[in-house]
From TrEMBL:
One of its GO terms (biological process) is mRNA processing. Belongs to the snRNP Sm proteins family. This is Sm domain-containing protein. Residues 13-95 form the Sm domain.
Length: 139
């Protein structure tokens, strides 16, 4: 049986569900815990994907100073992601996130980095001196 040119066969081994997400916004959670959002343009039998208009979405759930949880987007353009790096992929309604009733707010990447530095300083202060592998084993 042959498939007419331009139509998608009813069964594509290993990637059947991706056909429905083509040209739609998707969210990918990767093995290194990054979150990528963009428009799915292409895929292959190994689940390698091409995502256009992609952004890496970074979250900070413990924003210092009582500011609440925040997120920032880092624009990446077109991105090819290997299938073995994808943990979860799903369709999203929009590339922008709703404000979730004021609980999660969007900030610029500069503000995000400043918040992360503040959080790191607070955690460092709580921990006290960090364990130094080279000097602590020699004592």
């Amino acid at each position: 049986m042959s498939v007419p040119f331009g139509s998608v066969p009813g069964y594509l081994p290993g990637s059947t569900s991706l056909v429905e997400q083509l040209d739609r916004p998707v969210l990918l959670v990767l093995r290194d815990s990054r979150h990528i959002i963009g428009v799915l343009r292409s895929f292959d039998q190994f689940c390698n994907v091409l995502v256009e208009q992609s952004k890496e979405r970074r979250f900070c759930w413990t924003a210092g100073g009582g500011g609440g949880p925040v997120y920032a987007d880092v624009e990446e353009g077109s991105t090819i992601i290997k299938g073995d790096q994808i943990v979860v992929m799903g369709e999203v309604d929009d590339l922008d996130m709703p404000e979730m009733g004021g609980k999660l707010r969007k900030v610029t990447i500069k503000e995000f980095n400043a918040i992360m530095e503040k959080v790191d300083e607070e955690e460092e202060r709580k921990r006290g001196k960090c364990w130094d592998f080279d000097t602590d084993l020699n004592n």
